[in-house]
Specification:
single chain; 6-stranded antiparallel sheet; alpha+beta; 948 residues; 25% strand; 26 helices
Length: 948
């Protein structure tokens, strides 16, 4: 009977595979004995807690549980070990090596040996810290918002002259958990000095009140609180631990028992009038950004109430001055209050001659104009008197009926009267009799009626412009932009609401029709993507331009989502093939390295007196090493191809080598192809194209995978896939041909439609070709298809090629003999010690020092900074490569130009931007030995290049 193969360490292949799976899990897999001591932890334990597995094994699991959770955790463990429960699942905090903690979800069961005896517990720990933080933040935000609503309701119910501060402080103090909440008002004395006094206070139970503290009345702001004044006048906040404040501030605050505080400004019309403060007296807890923002909204609400009171006083003074001027005017002057008690506060005497109704009739009847106005103009009158700011200073013409039944046209010009908070409290207006002029204009307006009716029926936003200004806007445009009335748009320019528009963005009266895609900027600042069509016409007998906008925002957003979905689907389709491609070279790399290990063990002399050692076969060793290097190089090339799909979806356009893109696609799709067809390349001489490399890879990967899937498996010798390229004028043509099943003629016209697919259910989404067509069209190219059912298909991609700039080749200089490279001093900075040892061996011709962290590297440079070259890793845990570079640039100017960065490619967007910004070279892992030696030798021999 054949026995399973067992490694020298006693493990079978099945056990090793199982262990590999456990070691790659993101969840912590654990096992304890009956005393709750760790006996097994997978590497995820270090990722979650920071504690090394080797140091943790053998220690009690409770040592790593947060002290506040240990008793509860112990009770849960007892219920398992006493067999009261089959399994447990609960949330608990685990300590981390840096002194913090992580919330984890624990799932555990008891374990038994072969005899059925209890041996301990086993289960998983799942990191749920971010989920807990999000839940806590939402609950806290809800608590603050409830307090803000309560405070607003209390402020609105305060009668005129009542206490504004008292009702607002209690809900704020309870929501924020502060020990004390208070309000100070600021003012200047006769000498112009800025003072402040406490006006209101709320205290939590057990906190001493300070409202009667004489030191807090008429307190000079400068110099004691001069720093506060500078911040509060700019609208900023004062916050932090009192222990870190200047001594002059601590002398005032510490006797009150304040550990931390938050102070927010109260401003009226941009001027500082006081501040709201929050004290913590029991713990030195500071306020985070969310709390500061929400409490700032509360201080803003109090400021609004203060401004309203100030504006009411100003309004009374304004009315008196208005009356004196209005009595001598020939037009009807009026003041209408929008707030209770609503009605006319003033009407000039000429109203009797114009309207047939005198001032007394207006004062006694607030609804007089609403009854006398023409029914069709009632809505316009309501806007005029209730929301005058929407008129924006333009004139409004209204029809009124006199008591004798005659019709009167009045042209109104109004201005809103606002309080200090900007809220409209009244309307000042002037009404001029334009009855005769309107009779003449009515005839002209009838000619516009039919066109207006047509425009109002448009479902899409539309406007008519004359001399660059809107003379008509339909209801759809008014609603889309967020306005209430079309009159608010009349007189404005349509280009005001268009972003990224060269010139005016619409047609002129003598231009041809224009269609383009633009961004429509709404009144609240939001934007929508629209297809804008503009054409000239005559409106009311004069040249004008009509523009119609169709909203395509959802379509563009759907296209972007579909592009991402198709890209992810492509990666998922190729996952098995990529794993297969990587595993093949890895298999013989590992086998060859194992063979060499055995050979070295057999051929190294074990010591005197031992005979029979077989002489080494050097040729065979060289062959094995060559195969291992070849396999490792294949793995590196596969990983490099994967980077094309791992990059963020950047829209940057660069010159792209089409052949390189096709070779990458072939490598990634090799597993899909090899079982179905032979691959043949027919590459011609073609120039580069301007494109985004990742998107171009996505297109050809889709086409190649589709070609492979159109061919049945098992007949690879009978079918082929051909990749052909050729130049055609100023275009590059790429063809993907297959001998598969082909496309039926009746569906040929639909293959580029979204969600249309001829593949079985579950195989295709119907998005790939649609997205490919969109990408190629966006590059200014085209994608065509020819197919014969049962014989195969040809997809032809046509891409524009930019004209290359003429290249001036310098005369060839004789190649000088390579000088002997002097011995240099090199510093290697990498947090992986094995990488440092590799570089030491590669650079054994130089004096190489190794630092395993950024801080250690800076210490080495502080002792002896004269290094000829510094090889620095990009990503390190304590100080990243960028941090080391910037520190060296500040402390040892010029040495940063001797940096050569090394990376495995997994760097952040910030690191990527840094590497693009600096001129220093970058070497990728695994290393190309020639490039490493060449980069160092260049710095040792010639020094860094001249700074640009």
């Amino acid at each position: 009977m054949q026995m399973p193969f067992t490694r020298p360490d006693g493990t079978t292949p099945t056990e090793r595979r199982f262990r590999q799976v456990i070691d790659t899990l993101q969840e912590v897999v654990f096992q304890t004995d009956t005393e709750r001591n760790w006996v097994f932890l997978n590497p995820a334990w270090t990722e979650v807690t920071g504690f090394p597995v080797e140091e943790s094994l053998g220690r009690s699991a409770l040592d790593f549980v947060h002290p506040d959770d240990r008793e509860r955790t112990l009770e849960v463990c007892k219920t398992l070990l006493t067999r009261e429960r089959e399994f447990v699942q609960h949330e608990v905090r685990y300590l981390t090596r840096d002194g913090g903690f992580r919330w984890v979800e624990v799932f555990a069961r008891v374990t038994f040996d072969d005899t059925g005896a209890l041996v301990g517990m086993a289960g998983t720990l799942n990191n749920i810290t971010e989920r807990k933080r999000t839940s806590d933040a939402l609950a806290r935000r809800e608590r603050y918002l409830t307090a803000l609503v309560d405070m607003q309701q209390r402020l609105l119910s305060v009668p005129e002259g009542g206490d504004l501060y008292g009702p607002a402080l209690a809900p704020l103090g309870q929501a924020s958990g502060a020990s004390r909440v208070y309000v100070f008002e600021t003012f200047t004395d006769a000498k112009g000095a800025l003072l402040c006094s406490q006006r209101a206070e709320w205290c939590a139970p057990g906190v001493t009140a300070e409202i009667d503290n004489p030191m807090l009345q008429d307190l000079p702001m400068r110099p004691i609180l001069g720093r506060w004044v500078n911040l509060l006048e700019r609208g900023e906040v004062v916050t932090g631990r009192v222990a870190t404040f200047p001594a002059v501030e601590r002398d005032l605050l510490e006797p009150q028992g304040i550990l931390t505080l938050l102070v927010l400004p109260l401003r009226v019309q941009g001027r500082l009038v006081g501040f709201v403060g929050f004290d913590n007296c029991f713990e030195a807890r500071e306020w985070d950004r969310l709390e500061v923002d929400l409490l700032s909204a509360a201080s803003g609400a109090i400021s609004v109430s203060l401004e309203r009171r100030a504006s009411e006083r100003a309004l009374r003074e304004h009315e008196h001055r208005f009356r004196q001027l209005a009595e001598n005017a020939s037009d009807v002057l009026y003041l209408y209050r929008c707030e209770a008690p609503r009605g006319f506060a003033y009407v000039s005497r000429v109203a009797h001659a114009k309207l047939g109704l005198g001032p007394e009739a207006h004062y006694s009847d607030p609804e007089l104009w609403y009854r006398q106005v023409h029914p069709d103009d009632r809505a316009a009158l309501e806007r005029l008197l209730e929301s005058p700011q929407s008129v924006d200073g333009s004139t409004v013409e209204l029809r009124f009926l006199r008591p004798d039944g005659s019709l009167l046209w009045l042209e109104h010009v109004v201005a809103p009267v606002t309080d200090s908070a900007g809220r409209v409290v009244a309307v000042e207006g002037l009404a001029r009799d334009i009855t005769e002029r309107r009779q003449v204009e009515e005839a002209l307006k009838r000619s516009e009626a039919s066109l207006r009716a047509l425009m109002e029926g448009f479902p899409d936003p539309a406007a008519i412009e004359r001399d660059g200004h809107i003379v008509y806007a339909n209801a759809a445009l008014v609603t889309a932009l967020g306005f209430a009335r079309a009159e608010e748009l009349v007189g404005r320019r349509l280009s005001e609401f268009l972003a990224d528009v060269p010139g005016t963005g619409v047609a002129s009266v003598d231009s041809t029709p224009l269609t383009s895609e633009r961004r429509l900027v709404l009144r609240d600042g939001r934007t929508r993507v629209v297809e804008l069509a503009s054409l000239p016409l005559r409106f009311d007998g004069q040249p004008a331009v009509v523009s119609i906008a169709r909203d395509v925002t959802e379509q563009r957003q759907l296209q972007a989502r579909l592009t991402l979905a198709d890209r992810l689907a492509s990666v998922g389709t190729l996952a098995a093939g990529i794993a297969h491609e990587i595993n093949n070279p890895l298999a013989f790399v590992l086998s060859n390295l194992g063979f060499l290990s055995d050979e070295f063990r057999q051929h190294l002399s074990p010591g005197p007196g031992v005979r029979g050692v077989r002489p080494p076969d050097v040729a065979e060793w060289q062959e094995v090493l060559g195969e291992a290097c070849e396999g490792a190089e294949r793995v590196r090339q596969i990983v490099r191809q994967l980077k094309t799909f791992s990059r963020p979806d950047e829209e940057r356009m660069t010159p792209v080598d089409v052949h390189a893109v096709l070779d990458s696609v072939v490598m990634m799709a090799a597993n899909e192809i090899r079982h179905r067809a032979r691959l043949r390349r027919e590459y011609g001489t073609v120039p580069q194209v301007m494109a985004n490399e990742g998107r171009l890879c996505q297109v050809f990967l889709n086409l190649v995978v589709n070609a492979a899937q159109a061919i049945p498996e098992g007949s690879a010798h009978d079918h082929e896939i051909v990749l052909a390229t050729r130049a055609s004028g100023e275009q590059v043509v790429v063809e993907v041909r297959d001998t598969g099943s082909g496309i039926a003629p009746e569906v040929m016209g639909r293959i580029f439609d979204p969600f249309f697919t001829t593949k079985p259910v579950g195989v295709g989404t119907g998005l790939g070709l649609s997205i490919c067509h969109g990408i190629i069209s966006g590059l200014g190219g085209d994608i065509l298809v020819e197919s014969t059912l049962g014989q195969g298909s040809t997809f032809r991609v046509v891409l524009p090629s930019p004209r290359p700039d003429p290249v001036v080749r310098p005369p060839e200089a004789p190649v000088p003999a390579a000088p002997v490279v002097p011995r240099g001093r090199v510093l290697v900075v990498d947090d992986e010690p094995a990488v440092g040892r590799v570089l030491q061996r590669l650079l054994r011709g130089h004096d190489v020092e190794v630092a395993t962290s950024g801080r250690q590297a800076l210490e080495r440079m502080s002792r002896a900074p004269g290094f000829d070259a510094v090889l620095c890793d990009v990503m390190m845990p304590d100080l990243a490569g960028r941090d080391v570079y910037e520190a060296v640039r500040r402390e040892y100017p010029g040495l940063e130009r001797r940096f050569v960065f090394v990376s495995g490619g997994a760097f952040t967007s910030g690191a990527r931007e840094f590497l693009e910004r600096i001129p220093n070279p970058l070497l990728e892992k695994p290393f190309d030995e020639a490039r490493v030696r060449g980069a160092v030798e260049e710095l040792v021999r010639h020094g860094p290049p001249d700074a640009a």
